[in-house]
Amino acid sequence: MKDQIMFKASVLAIAFCITAVSCAAAIPSTQITMSPQPLSSKGWFWKEPYQNYAPQGVPDFDQQQNNWQKIIAGPNGIIDSTVSGDDIFNVADNCIAPGPNCMLESVAAGDDLVKWAFCGPVAVANCLWWFDSKFADPSGTPGDGLDIYPMVEDYGAGDDHSANNVPLLIESLAQTMGTCDVGTTTVTMMTDGITDWLQTTGLDIAYDLNAYTTPTFDFIEGEIERSQNVMLLLGFYEYVVGDKVVDQEQPFFTFRNDNLQTITWNDYQSFVPTVSRLDAIQICLVSNGPPCDIEINVYDVQSGTPIGTTIMNPGSLVSPTWVQFHFDPYVSLTPNNTYYFDVRQVLTGFHYEWFYANIIDIPSDPYPPGQGWLDTLGTDPLGYPFDWTFRTEHYYPPPTVERREGHFVTCAGVNSDEFMIAFSDPAKDVANTSSTNHNDAINVSHDIYNITIGTPYPDIETEWWLPDYSTAYDYCIVEHAVVLCFVPDEEAPLVEITRPIKALYFFDQEVIPLPIPVPLVLGPITVEVNAFDNRSGIYHVDFYVDDVLQLNCTSAPYTWKWETFGLFIYNLRVIAYDNAGNYAPQTMAVLKIL
Q: What is the DSSP string of 413-441?
């Protein structure tokens, strides 16, 4: 009896298999369409919001929580504090880091200072959360437990996109990057940590990660508008100057003075420097009328073009007073060359008198006499050679800029027309100063700053800086950029119908393989499919019978119970879609009876 059934089934299968195989159904047109990222040639461009888990665009998580701090040395340069708990003393950076549990347990002592330390992990958390939201369930909401994109996972809060999961994500990143062990984050630590994170989550093939030193503003603008995630390392620099030191001087006078004129090269003095810069000139003055501006010009040849100019109103000077005139920028000098400066008042009349000494006052005058008077002889009205009072000064040591701190931010938007940029800043909430918990991605403070192209000081290497970013120091410059870039997935996923195979099935049980072109199914059967995509991941798998959709399966295992009555050869078709909108079909002819 069994042999008869097998024979009849084989005959039916062979009879219909040619027709079944030749039936080619069109692939249904329904598929995912990813929203293109709009580009902006002018005005503001904001990173795209995702209503599921990033409704305000790039999140703005806060580093100032959970005691994510470190202890640094105060003015004495020595760590006076004692290490407690699992905190770690970082000898190289002379600080106490919070250790593996991420919470500082040591107490600052002496003149030590406590600083927030997790700007790097927070900047990366803003970035990863945004990407995870981009590829998550578009209808999802925080707490629904539906998101399966592995960029951000549940680290113990019960749901990957709940606000309670944010500190756990940040601490996981701090541990991965090593921030908790050293108390700071370098660009190398950040890129190594992100690389490890992508490899662990299986997303390394889907993203490119690059770091750039002194990137241009145009480059950063382009990366933001391509909707990549850009993290910037800002450097805070302080302008440091030494004391002004006198190089050359003629300080003598015995109340000999003469009224300043309004023309150049009327009252002038020479000097021979021993240093290479001139930062200030002092002269001794007294008022003989209402105050006005005084101009000092410096020359490298007599009657030449000024190589430096300074103008200042000294105010009312009731007695002989040394007045310091500053040069900004400083005047470059060649040591042992002769230079000249003249002094003039900008208004006619009697305003100021400049003091001088003649050979009677200083018989051993260190400067050649005759350096300027109403005539060309260089003598005073009594006929004596003279010199004006003066002191040339320079900074020693020369002014420098010193880097004091670094700080990571995540870019949230850019305005190329007005040279402005917006940050999700781990430490600042300028645009939204409310105390709302910023672990909630609904609440952000996208702080906007002006851009200045170039460098604020010749010794600082940067392409642009932020003149209105408020710090305790003089300059905020852009040092590095870390760019995490999603590589568009243009490869179709892999899909295979693994059940049924070419065999006889009786009420969902495989009976015996058959040497026929198609499976023979008696009664209901569970169709099983393997689907895989190593880039963006599988979004869903659709099951069709003769082009009629039977099931949209959104999670593995991808199965469907085929229970409808049949007495024919049918086209069983499955289509796997990935999260980038690519799809791959597979079709199988199935002889179904009952």
A: EEETTTTEEEEE-SS--SS------TTST
